[in-house]
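FAQ
Q: What does a multi-component entry look like?
A: The components come first, one per line:
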Amino acid sequence: MSSDIGVSPYTRLFGRYLREIGLPVTQQRETVADVVFDSEGHLSVDDIEQEVRARGARIGKATIYRTLDLLVRSRLVEEHDFGEGFKRYEHRLSRHPVHEHLICLECGSVAEFESPEVFGVESRVKAELGFQPVRHRLDIYGLCKACQDAGVTLTPEGLICPIETV
Amino acid sequence: MSSDIGVSPYTRLFGRYLREIGLPVTQQRETVADVVFDSEGHLSVDDIEQEVRARGARIGKATIYRTLDLLVRSRLVEEHDFGEGFKRYEHRLSRHPVHEHLICLECGSVAEFESPEVFGVESRVKAELGFQPVRHRLDIYGLCKACQDAGVTLTPEGLICPIETV
DNA sequence: CTCAGTGCAAACCGTTTGCAGAACG
DNA sequence: CGTTCTGCAAACGGTTTGCACTGAG
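Then the predicted structure of the entire assembly, as tokens:
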């Protein structure tokens, strides 16, 4: 069926993409898309499954994975791996479609920022190294403001100055 | 036993680290370390296991994983995830201990380059956002020179201009 | 009716862990 | 000699896949 009533404009965009490539626009696909587009965060599959449930739907994990794959292929959604052992998903339709990430090593929070500098880096590697950039990822790991204010300090592990061979 | 004969200077540095934290310097640990330090590439665990075999040793995967964990903790080795479904390891004792990566979407090759610009970005997020950077990762995905010369072009998939709601 | 989508459960695969036996110090 | 490591194999956990069933047109 898919009444399209209540689905976000972004989800309609996704529906357009599906029709474009000849795939059915199903209720499950619209629900998953809605959940992703309604959130401004970086969602894990579990987050998505939970929110789907909260909305009264019951969609299998396999379908969620398959739908996320379609969303990523449509380029409406980006897949991230912050080294947690699972992926996170974020739609690209916010005010800042291309942005970088600040990941707190203490609390795991993820903040976003824009870095025009990186585009300079991209044109430099193209000019100097002949590498043709398509997309990039800049993740900065460290301590967020809140954790610093809470007095957290990171204990440096490992060799202090590894760059010297005795 | 561990004769230390033939082990690279970097491996001796690793041995020093192990003793520092009160852990035994075993033959297996030295062999794994040697393999990693002898390579300038980005090695998968399979790569390492294969090279260990090629050197006539037979070390279980579990031990390789456990040793890599120690190497990473010592900060002599860095762990990377280029989205291939497994990790890669690279020692930090080359001429350019901190560098970024260019990953070819066609052939999967990984090249390195230095980006002083990123340090400017780090101090900017610190000054403007109060985020205290510890380390970063800048990966640029695209087409390497060789693949471009071979005539490869990436077929853009998905919606051309997703940033507009119908 | 037909065909793709869905859900379940099993498979997958890189990585981790438990444990008996071997090695280090 | 006690402690830690090693190797094997089983466990783990996120993700993918096979397949019978359901639903849309």
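Q: Is there any commentary attached?
A: Sometimes. For this entry: Chain A has six helices and six strands.
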